[in-house]
Amino acid sequence: MPIHDWTRAPSGYFHHFHQNWTVGICTALNAGVLPADKRLTLASYAAGTFKTAYVEPVAAGDTLPAMPLFLDAKKYIRVPLGETYESTWKACPEEFKQRVV
User: Cα(32)–Cα(30) distance, rounded to whole angstroms?
Assistant: First the structure.
């Protein structure tokens, strides 16, 4: 199915469609597309002529991998998710940490 021109519809229509689409993706992923032990996903998108998603299944407790951040359809930089998460966690107030551990 081609991508539709949502600029021709009232904004609420796209919002409704987008919310249902998000739930549809979630349902498909939780219906066995993801490994049973990796129920979370990281995603990066290249939005050129052909849209490409780079999906990395992860689980709570996994070390976060580096992921591409696309600057255009072909150029990207690698974002060190694990290192940036760790440095942010170290700077996080102790009371916040206690709520999520």
Answer: 5
Amino acid identity, position 3: I
Rounded to 5 degrees, what are φ and ψ at 49?
A: -55, -45
Rounded CA-CA distance 52/80 in Å is 20
The answer to whether 92 and 81 have CB atoms below 8 angstroms apart is no
Cα(12)–Cα(33) distance, integer angstroms: 30
Measured in whole angstroms, how far is the alpha carbon of residue 60 from the centre of its chain? 15
DSSP string, 41-62: EEEEEEESSSEEEEEEEE-TTP
The string of pLDDT tens digits covering residues 23-68 is: 887 788 778 777 888 888 899 988 878 888 888 999 988 999 999 9
Task: Indicate yes or no: pTM above 0.70.
Answer: no
